[in-house]
Amino acid sequence: MTSRRGTLVEEGARELLQIHGYTVRVIPPGFNKRLPPVHLIATRPSGETMFIRIQKLSHRSPTAESIERHCPNDLTQFRKYISNHPEEAGLRCEIWIYTLTHGFRCFEILADSIREIPKLALHPPGISRARGEA
């Protein structure tokens, strides 16, 4: 994401993932043509890996149907990557839609469908908002 607002949204997603225990790499545009069009790659020591594409939309709340309409090229590239790399256990491809009124809405891209996934909470369970104490 190149705009100032886009950079801030990307930074917010990165911080949210780090709060939940992910190591996050920001992928610059054109970094690796063998990867799908991702902005972030988030990994956990357990082997879980998420490829995340961040999109901004207007004030409307996104749905799986609107993802099909607004992100067809991203979907095609994610599905192609998934079909060419079935052996990669723990890999998830996601599109995170950011709107000013709804924040992030997260969607997992599957070989033949899209499913909305619960968004990550700003404060994980067991962490106090006041001082980070349980």
Q: Report strand %.
A: 25-35%
Q: Say how many strands there are.
A: 6
SSE string, helices as H and strands as E: HEEEHHEEE
List the total number of helices: 3
Biggest sheet features: 6 strands, mixed
- How are strands sequenced across the largest beta sheet? 1-2-3-4-5-6
Write down the overall mean pLDDT: 81
- Helix/strand/pairing class, anyone? alpha+beta
Shape: globular
Supply Rg: 15 Å
Helix content: 25-40%
Distance between the termini: 35 Å
Question: Explain this structure to me?
Answer:
With 134 residues, the protein is an alpha+beta fold. It has helices at residues 4-19, 64-70, 72-84, and strands at 23-26, 40-43, 49-56, 91-99, 103-109, 114-117. The model is unreliable at 127-134 (pLDDT under 50).
Q: Could you list some keywords that capture this structure?
A:
134 residues; alpha+beta; 6-stranded mixed sheet; 3 helices; 27% strand; globular; disordered C terminus
